[in-house]
Amino acid sequence: MSFEQAATLPVGGIEALHLLRQAQVRPGERVLVNGAGGCIGTYAVQLAKNFGAEVTAVDGAPKLEMLRAIGAARVIDYTREVFTRLADRYDVIFDVIGKASFSGVVRALKPGGSFLVGNPKIIHRLGRVWAEQTRQVKVFAWSAGMLEENLTYLAGQIEAGQIRAVIDRVFPLEQAAAAHRYAETGEKKGHVVITLP
């Protein structure tokens, strides 16, 4: 595994793995990843697929082909369709960016489904109590922390070719400001990596 690939694991890989494990994703379940084209989302798509789920990935049109290539069975262009307004229902919804309406997510989940929030906001925390009392929806919205077993698992998955680190661009340290500007455009596919001399 390259240093660049290894650099993607602590943020994207660990968070995706931790939350998908919290939801106990099983073969045959339907998983939707909202914001699937970024660092957490690209790992979430691949890991959910490897857990046996049918994955729907939501992002902008420029990222949809890449999302199909890494394992999404279905893709939704968020500029054309709002997944919470469609008839489809999911066992797990992973909102990487934390922007989906909570009430819409609850409607899009099957009863007993899990809502994973990669970027939690207070409304999701407050909504947790409401959802658990009304529809038995499970909400997971906390950071994974650095667990050696998770890093080891992800490294093994990359080395075995089961998943891959999606790296859009690599910048040298002296171009760190440019790397941040590019990452903030929302156009990146997967990770932006900064290398050290």
Strand order of the largest sheet: 3-2-1-4-5-6
Task: Please bin the fraction of helical residues.
Answer: 40-55%
Distance from first to last alpha carbon = 18 Å
Number of strands: 8
Concise description?
It contains seven helices and eight strands; from the N terminus they run αβαβαββαβαβαβαβ. The chain is α/β, with parallel strands linked by helices.
Task: Describe the protein.
The chain is an alpha/beta fold and 197 residues long. It has helices spanning 3-22, 39-50, 61-69, 102-108, 122-134, 148-159, 176-184; strands spanning 30-34, 54-59, 74-77, 90-95, 109-117, 138-140, 167-172, 191-195. The model has no long low-confidence stretch (mean pLDDT 88). The chain has one domain (3-140): Rossmann fold (3-Layer(aba) Sandwich). The longest helix is centred in the N-terminal third of the chain and has 20 residues, at 3-22. The protein starts with a helix and ends with a strand. Strands 3-2-1-4-5-6 form a six-stranded parallel beta sheet, sandwiched between helices. It has a two-stranded parallel sheet with strand order 7-8. Helix 1 (3-22) packs across helix 2 (39-50) and helix 1 crosses helix 6 (148-159). The protein is 42% helix and 22% strand.
Q: Which helices and strands, and how do they pair?
A:
Layout: H1 3-22, E1 30-34, H2 39-50, E2 54-59, H3 61-69, E3 74-77, E4 90-95, H4 102-108, E5 109-117, H5 122-134, E6 138-140, H6 148-159, E7 167-172, H7 176-184, E8 191-195
Parallel strand pairs: 1-2, 1-4, 2-3, 4-5, 5-6, 7-8
Helix pairs in contact: 1-2, 1-6
